[in-house]
Design a protein that fits this description.
Length: 291
């Protein structure tokens, strides 16, 4: 599933095309994705100008005229494609970079947002695990999917004190960090990388964060990993392109994720990256230097 850096890259890629543009029409290829589309979905968006494009955790938020906001989640395989016949750099581009390549098969184009002049934003989703909803802008933060979300790791509110919320938990550190109610937007890839950077074993109880120095070390690592991944355009492992036609290259900086059996990249460590299963997910770490 796309993680925060990938979704933020999508937001940044769509922003120049969508913000200020008027949606001239919406074409639906089916009645719904993971869930049915909201009632009169296409009609409620047609003719509306996009006032702003935001992100909360892994959700994209399109604020449109008329007091409504489109909430979009990419699910496992969803992506947006920009079609712009006037763009000199390329006729089509897909903002965002993912750990698995996004589909370009037109059979899986399920929503088309026409913006006039032949420009369009197309949503493609082979597995159809993504979804879209329309909600009142004034109540957006109280929407059930957004109300329980924690602090953004890119926010000024995020700090070692945020992680102190785990201080009384015996849950393994890796599982605790995936709790979206405390820190939102963190996913499997970047939690593995942040734990390696901070030298913390993912199997240790989250109560180790009761130590201010340990919590600060992890907070710094989380900020750095997320920030670097956003600037790199996410973590594509294949040929997925951003809006400017370039690839996301953060995967070349992976210290542990997907590197089972390879040498640890920490200078002087000499250990080997291992993979274990935690809560049904793969965890990559170095048993030698992560304590």
């Amino acid at each position: 599933m796309p993680e925060l850096p990938e979704v933020e890259t999508v937001r940044r890629g769509l922003q120049p095309v969508l913000e200020g543009a008027t949606i001239s029409g919406v074409t639906l290829g089916r009645a719904g994705l993971r869930y049915p589309f909201p009632e009169r979905f296409a009609e409620r968006l047609a003719g509306r100008r996009v006032l702003g494009l935001g992100r909360r955790s892994k959700y994209l938020l399109w604020e449109v005229e008329g007091g409504e906001t489109l909430l979009a989640h990419l699910g496992m395989s969803g992506s947006f494609r920009i079609e712009d016949p006037s763009a000199a750099r390329m006729a089509e581009s897909s903002p965002g970079a993912f750990a698995l390549a996004r589909s370009r098969d037109a059979r899986h184009d399920h929503v088309r947002f026409d913006l006039g002049g032949g420009t369009a934003v197309v949503y493609n989703d082979p597995r159809r695990f993504g979804f879209m909803d329309l909600l009142p802008t004034v109540d957006a933060e109280r929407h059930p999917r957004l109300a329980g979300l924690g602090v953004e790791p890119t926010s000024n509110l995020f700090s070692a004190a945020t992680l102190a919320a785990f201080a009384d938990r015996r849950t393994p550190l890796k599982a605790a960090l995936l709790d979206q109610a405390v820190v939102t937007g963190l996913g499997n890839i970047y939690v593995c990388e942040a734990l390696w950077r901070s030298g913390l074993d993912p199997r240790r109880p989250a109560s180790v964060l009761a130590d201010p120095e340990t919590a600060e070390r992890l907070a710094v690592a989380i900020r750095a990993v997320i920030g670097e991944a956003i600037e790199a355009g996410g973590s594509t492992l294949r040929d997925h392109m951003r809006t400017d036609g370039t690839l996301g290259y953060f995967q070349h900086r992976f210290a542990v994720y997907g590197r089972e059996g390879e040498a640890c990249r920490r200078p002087g460590c000499g250990g080997t990256v291992a993979r274990i299963r935690q809560s049904g997910r793969s965890t990559f770490f170095c048993p030698s230097c992560q304590r």
